[in-house]
Amino acid sequence: MIHPDTELRFVSPEVGYGVFATRRIPRGTITWALDPLDRRWSALEAEALGPAFEPILRRYGYLDEEGQRVISWDHGRYVNHSCAPTTASGGDDHFEVALRDIEAGEEITDDYGEFLADEYFACRCGAPTCRGDVGLGSPLEELARDQLRERVQEALIAGRVLPQPLLAFALDRARIERALELGTQAVEPEPLA
Question: Which domains does the chain have, with CATH numbers?
Answer without folding.
Answer: 6-172 (2.170.270.10)
